[in-house]
Amino acid sequence: MRQGMIHIYCGDGKGKTTAATGLAVRAAGSGMKVLFARFLKNENSAELCVLDQIPGIEVIHLPKSYGFYNTQSEEEKAETKQMYEELWKYALDRAKNGACDMLVMDEFMAADRYGLIPHEEAIQFLKEKPEGLEVVLTGRDPSEDLIRIADYVSEIRKVKHPFDCGVYARRGIEY
Ligand code: ATP
Ligand code: MG
């Protein structure tokens, strides 16, 4: 069996989620089964319409969308936490049971930073993951221990972004 590796797409530039999405498409094209989990996201990003149609890619859809975590009330935060704990458990179970060859966790770093997933358990999982499993994590700033465990760490650095000139997110490009 081929050794699966751990990828991180991080940094403050645009392209982390789209890189993970591209890798998922490539993997599916080669016959790999991909499980695509998304943290701190809503359901209206346009790539989901296509990912859902690709044989071999399972996107985990969540019952609710949430706004920015920082602006949530304590009650909403508790609800968010429970939803993402369930997502985390589900994704982990599927990955451990060999239901997928690639596990993508988009915005894993943010979920980790906000304490929405158990950090030590995540580190343990990555250290002891099924041998053939490929794992892809995205988010701005990964912790040192994640960087140590990963095999690929690609930092996308913002040189320019139209947001800085007041341009809003554009459908099909940013979401
Ligand atoms: P993409 O989904 O386009 O690959 P990303 O995953 O790298 O982007 P995120 O950090 O997830 O970027 O940010 C989500 C949204 O914010 C995207 O619409 C992205 O284009 C935009 N964005 C990314 N980097 C910046 C930045 N430095 N300033 C403002 N907006 C940004
Ligand atoms: Mg992203």
TrEMBL record:
A single GO molecular function term of this UniProt record: ATP binding
Gene3D superfamilies in the cross-refs: P-loop containing nucleotide triphosphate hydrolases (3.40.50.300)
Keywords on record: Transferase
GO BP of this protein: cobalamin biosynthetic process
Top-level division of the source organism's lineage: Bacteria
InterPro entries: CblAdoTrfase_CobA, P-loop_NTPase
Keyword Ribosomal protein: no
Parts of the chain that traverse the membrane: none
PANTHER family: CORRINOID ADENOSYLTRANSFERASE
Protein name in the entry: Cob(I)yrinic acid a,c-diamide adenosyltransferase
Organism: Mediterraneibacter gnavus (strain CC55_001C)
Source organism phylogeny: Bacteria, Bacillati, Bacillota, Clostridia, Lachnospirales
